[in-house]
Design a protein that fits this description.
heterodimer, A: about 650 residues, alpha+beta, 5 domains, five-stranded mixed sheet, 25 helices, about 45% helix, B: about 550 residues, alpha/beta, Rossmann fold, 23 strands, globular
Chain lengths: ~650, ~550
């Protein structure tokens, strides 16, 4: 390297870098690599844009930032004069925020401009330490696995429920306060946690707005059905990964927005551009601890906040809240247990397969239940999904958690009969799933329900009710609650109604009867409530896929090098006459502080060539010192036909 | 994953797998703070409630113990939110305490300023507190000791009562254990009560609550006021005390509708105390008639509301409540907690049964089908008439006759609610011209006593009773009970009826409990509650058709 002449510009320096170094830069600043730049000139030009520079500055630690401020104040300085911040300087150079020119190290012009407006950061220069305490890894793993299992189970319970009774989408796009409350009650969690659960369900594309009739409602997607068929650990991984890369901030639900309105769950505005980076930085700090070391209760979180503040000093004032919610949410989701990042959480953060680490910690799905004399069936653990679905057709869920308690009642059995089961099938099913003998009262209840099931039949054409049970009809006709149906007894076994059939059916069921609907040919229709689904939203590929990232960087580096070879074969000082080329040449001139000749079309349509010293490119305007008018002037970038170096 | 027998649900229920090898250990660990809600054959359900956790605190357990018990025995991870909730709830007990101050008398003390300020500012305690003594102490009006405890419980900051008790007028009472012995759990119950100061002892019917009362009196050795549900039960208390203690008949007074004696030990009925004339309670003075050292409340779950108000004024006296269940149909469990005291002893029914003190029961529901005519009458009847129509079908009489015949040589109780049905039963169950003996609300106390004695001695093998027999009368020899009708299947009534049969003393004999139910009517709906209750208590329950008898 020493043999090479000192670079004249950032582009020059980049050209001299090894491929490995360029690739490293692209990994550090991924925005430079997409789409792959044509050559080093364009790469340098991109690195010198305001947006990209800002993004890079935002990721600097307090120490790096202080050194950079210092350098900006001094201007170009030989490296030897900057002993103190040597490590920081290397990092800044790696990031292409600083380059080593003929006069020594200097900050890229746009960086110097950005920092000139900001105040120099203050704070502890040594990196703040985390306050930690020792935890038992087994207890941590159990706690977190329990949380992970609960998350998967809760999402399933909620979305199953919403599949039949979806909450509507607010006009502003979120979920109503009342619907969130109901969800929290259903899941036995507080509203904060419920807001997180629905939010990660949308991030994981399990829940999305869909239309139900005229209205828009939050519906489980068809991806949800696929998700349900996965192993619990894999289901968790999908949800946790979606959370990790989501910019959404469900922790703000229930608070007030800038206009003083309260923020709804799932609202589209619940997004913070700094959320993902802050979350990952915070979790990375935990990942650096040993597996038995966790954040201490009470003091641990503030120390983590201080550390993140040091690592990302340019971040906005709500950074502490973002860090706190990251840790809280990670705990709810089972990535963190008792302040320790779990092995599964570490794998997830590193982009490895976390499901296989979590799987052995989750309870094994069961294929049996215990049926008891009080007409409950208890599943002492998670059930196989198919078994759970069948059981739910004939029994009501009474209590959930590690175990599930189902209760048989005549209503639930009737639902089973409605879904097409026969009494014999129910008996056989109960026999086969129960590890204990089926109690006599339950068998009796099944037979008794089947006996009364379908004693009343309702017809479409004339809206009739017929039943062999004369007393039941007499009862119905005499019932003042049925008055609105306009019932009239035609014969001891036949009643007609003036009410439409859907009203009639509902009312009859309310009155405790179990009518079945008869088709015109006399066959009996069975019905079960349809479950509703919406379409899976297309998700953009996740940015944090290590393999994909590596491939992208490699492709970009190859492209840059190829472009450089083409440029060098053309000769160095070419006329840039494409818009992108012109911009790159202008930026290179800004960096190098050199003069260029531009071909410019002025307001009168006259084409002229001018010698200018470009100062900055911003908002479609080139600000440059014009040698002809001997003054600083603004040029519209789109009117610049070509740029070439002065001879 | 752990292999413990306990599963903690997020709705605060705990499921205990009974057949698990470590079940007994887990049960012992959670019994102090969790309330047993259901105990069917395989999995018992416990519930964590605020009152339960505070009861545990009162008994000296702390949140760490509770959390440790949950973590140690739980099969799956325990929901974090639940653990936090347990710790927070338990920490609320005892932040405030009532104490006796040498200078200021009764004071409310707290070391937690914010809580103290919150409570002082509450409207609920307005008027109960006097001058503020310091940042952490405020004077309490002596008369408001009970009301304040009630109000603080409602605010969620239950106070510990360290203000102590008056000794009362001393009176020698000893247990006279010749020919019998206090059972270990009875002694333990009395002991726990005495150490706790005041509180409730929960024992199933037939487990000898009267003896626990007597043992408590022997601890107190002071004049005692015993409050019971009715006159018959008052007589039984008296007999039992004469038999089991050093007390003589002259030392025990009865204070009821007919007799008004005030003696060192006085047994009064709730009814006479709550009798109202011209808006006043004329018999209230009984409470101050002597310097009572102990007050015994029998059947706390039936304690009428006015007695609560009176009890609020008796906070300086030791109080023991005896009951089979803390569940009150009116939901006033919190008042029992704050006015009588926390639970001091509890034994699950099934455990006592396993110890052999209570006979196991076989519960059978017999379903009769209403004949067509009655069904139509039922269907067209007014809703309020329906239960009566369904419950009083004549078909039931035939079934009762069959059952009585099946158990001809066993003492049998037939229980019904409606007088005309009792009449009908009595006629049809009689032998020859003689109707079967009956006891209803109209039967005189003397006659009741005579019939009970005759039943007990085996002179009569069959007794038809109305719901007056539900409460606190000892019928030790009934082996079969047939319930024909009852009021709306309340859980409490069920406990009582079963208690009828579960009296100790018959070595290993199986008691039979039949209920006769009309199919497809409200009667059957109520029967479902009953079935659930019994099955939840762990009793075998069968349903048969009347035709299959």
């Amino acid at each position: 390297m020493t043999a090479l002449p000192a670079p004249r510009s950032l582009a020059d320096q980049l050209r001299q870098w090894s491929e490995e170094r360029v690739a490293h830069l692209m990994r550090l600043r991924p925005d430079l690599a997409t789409p792959p730049p044509q050559d080093s000139t364009q790469l340098a030009s991109r690195a010198a844009t305001r947006a990209s520079a800002l993004r890079a500055l935002d990721r600097l630690t307090l120490a790096d930032l202080a050194v950079l401020h210092d350098l900006v104040t001094r201007g170009a300085t030989p490296r030897a004069a900057l002993e103190e911040g040597a490590i920081s300087l290397d990092r800044l150079e790696e990031l292409a925020l600083v380059w080593d020119g003929t006069e020594g190290l200097r900050a890229v012009t746009v960086v110097a401009e950005l920092l000139a407006r900001a105040t120099a950061p203050t704070g502890p220069v040594p990196e703040p330490a985390l306050v930690t305490s020792e935890q038992s890894p087994t207890l941590v793993a159990r706690t977190a696995a329990g949380a992970a299992f609960d998350v998967v189970r809760r999402i399933e319970v909620l979305l199953d429920h919403w599949g039949t009774q979806p909450p509507s989408v607010l006009r502003t796009g979120g979920l109503g306060v009342r619907d969130l409350k109901t969800a929290a009650l259903l899941l036995h969690v507080d509203e904060r946690e419920a807001a997180l659960l629905v939010d990660v369900a949308t991030s994981a594309a399990l829940l999305a707005p869909g239309s139900v009739g005229e209205a828009e409602a939050w519906l489980p997607t068809d991806a949800y059905d696929a998700w349900c068929r996965l192993e619990a650990a894999e289901r968790w991984q999908r949800v946790a990964r979606a959370w990790l890369t989501s910019a959404r901030t469900p922790a703000k639900v229930g608070g007030k927005d800038a206009a003083g309105k309260s923020v709804n769950a799932l609202a589209p505005a619940l997004v913070d551009p700094h959320q993902v980076d802050t979350r990952i930085v915070a979790l990375q700090q935990l990942a650096e601890l040993s597996p038995t070391e966790g954040l201490a209760t009470g003091t641990g979180l503030p120390s983590l906040v201080a550390r993140v503040r040091w690592l990302r000093p340019r971040r906005p004032s709500d950074q502490p809240a973002l860090v706190a919610s990251a840790v809280e949410e990670a705990t709810v989701l089972g990535l963190v247990g008792m302040g320790v990042l779990t092995p599964a959480g570490r794998a997830l953060l590193a982009g490895h397969d976390a499901a296989e680490i979590l799987a052995p910690l989750l309870p094994e799905p069961l294929d049996h239940v215990l049926i008891q004399g009080d007409l409950t069936a208890i599943a002492p653990g998670p059930l196989l999904p198919a078994l759970a679905a069948r059981l739910q057709q004939v029994a009501d869920v009474e209590s959930r958690g590690g175990a599930t308690v189902y209760r048989f009642a005549s209503g639930s059995l009737r639902r089973g009969l409605d879904a097409g089961w026969t009494a014999a099938e129910i008996h056989a099913f109960l026999e086969s799933v129960s590890r204990t003998p089926v109690p006599q009262p339950l068998s009796y209840l099944v037979d008794d329900t089947a006996r009364t099931y379908g004693t009343v039949r309702v017809g479409y054409a004339e809206a009739f009710l017929r039943s062999d049970d004369e007393a039941a009809l007499a009862h119905l006709v005499a019932d003042p609650k049925a008055a609105s149906l306009g019932l009239r007894l035609l014969a001891p076994t036949v009643v007609i109604s003036t009410a439409p059939i859907d009203v009639l059916l509902a009312r009859l069921r309310e009155l405790g009867l179990a009518p079945v609907v008869e088709a015109s040919d006399g066959t009996v229709h069975v019905a079960r409530p349809d479950t509703l689904r919406s379409r899976t939203p297309r998700s953009s590929p996740t940015a944090r896929d290590a393999a994909r990232e590596a491939a992208q960087v490699a492709a970009a580096v190859a492209a840059v090098r190829a472009g450089d070879r083409v440029a060098s074969s053309r000769g160095r000082d070419v006329i840039a006459n494409t818009p992108a080329g012109a911009l790159a040449a202008l930026r290179a001139a800004i960096e190098g502080g050199s003069s260029v000749v531009i071909e410019y079309l002025d307001n009168h349509g006259t084409r002229s060539e001018r010698i200018v010293d470009p100062r900055r490119v911003e908002g479609g305007q080139l600000t440059a010192y014009d040698h002809r008018s001997e003054d600083e002037r603004a040029f519209a970038v789109h009117r610049i036909g070509s740029v070439r170096p002065t001879d | 994953m752990n292999d413990g027998p306990l599963i903690v649900q997020s709705d605060k229920t705990l499921l205990l797998e009974v057949d698990h090898p470590k079940a007994a250990e887990a049960r012992r660990a959670i019994a102090p703070f969790a309330e047993l809600e259901r105990s069917p054959e395989h999995i018992h359900t416990y519930r964590l409630t605020n009152l339960g956790l505070w009861n545990a605190r009162a008994a000296g357990h702390d949140a760490e113990q509770v959390i440790d018990a949950l973590l140690a025995h739980s099969r799956y991870a325990v929901p974090h939110a639940l653990l936090i909730d347990v710790a927070e709830t338990m920490a609320r007990y005892g932040r405030l305490s009532l104490e006796k101050h040498d200078e200021h008398g009764l004071v409310l003390v707290s070391s937690d300023r914010p809580v103290f300020e919150e409570v002082l500012r509450s409207k609920k305690v307005a008027g109960m507190l006097g001058a503020r003594v310091s940042d952490e102490m405020v004077v309490v009006h002596g008369s408001e000791r009970g009301n304040l405890k009630q109000a603080l419980l409602k605010l969620g900051w239950p106070a510990e009562d360290f203000a102590g008790y008056v000794d009362g007028e001393a009176h020698a009472i000893e247990l006279d254990q010749s020919g019998w012995e206090l059972r270990p759990y009875q002694a333990e119950a009395a002991e726990s009560f005495w150490h706790g100061g005041s509180g409730v002892v929960v024992l199933p019917c037939g487990a000898g609550k009267t003896l626990v009362g007597a043992a408590a009196m022997a601890h107190a050795k002071a004049t005692t006021l015993i409050l019971v549900t009715n006159t018959v039960s008052a007589r039984q208390w008296k007999d039992e005390l004469v038999k089991r203690t050093s007390l003589t008949e002259d030392e025990i007074g009865e204070y009821s509708g007919s007799v008004k004696e005030i003696r060192p030990v006085t047994i009064a009925t709730y009814q006479v105390l709550t009798l109202r004339r011209k808006g006043a309670y004329p018999h209230l003075e009984l409470l101050d008639a002597r310097d009572w050292g102990l007050i015994v409340y029998d059947e706390v779950h039936l304690l009428p509301a006015p007695i609560f108000r009176m009890t609020a004024d008796l906070q300086a006296r030791r109080r023991i409540g005896l009951t089979a269940t803390l569940v009150r149909e009116d939901g006033r469990e919190g008042d029992v907690f704050s006015l009588i005291g926390p639970k001091r002893y509890d034994a699950p029914w099934k455990d006592i049964e396993a110890q052999g003190y209570i006979a196991p029961a076989d519960c059978v529901e017999v379903r009769v089908t209403l004949p067509q005519g009655e069904r139509i009458a039922y269907a067209t009847a007014e809703p309020e008439e329906r239960y009566r129509l369904a419950a009083c079908t004549h078909h039931k009489i035939d079934v009762v006759r069959k059952l009585v015949a099946q158990h001809a040589d066993q003492p049998t109780l037939v229980i019904a609610q409606y007088l005309d049905q009792i009449e009908e039963l009595s006629q049809s169950l009689g032998t020859g011209e003689e109707p079967a003996p009956t006891i209803t609300g109209e039967t005189t106390v003397k006659e009741r006593q005579r019939l009970f004695d005759a039943f007990r001695s085996g002179e009569i093998g069959l007794l038809v009773v109305s719901k007056v027999a539900n409460f606190s009368i000892d019928l030790p020899s009934a082996e079969v009970a047939i319930q024909v009708s009852g009021s709306y299947g309340s859980r409490q009534e069920e406990a009582q009826r079963l208690g009828r049969l579960l009296r100790p003393g018959r070595d290993g004999k199986v008691a039979h409990f039949y209920t006769i139910v009309s199919r497809d009517t409200v009667d059957a709906d109520f029967a479902q509650n009953r079935q659930r209750f019994l099955a939840e208590q762990g009793y075998a329950y069968r349903i048969i058709d009347a035709d299959d008898l």
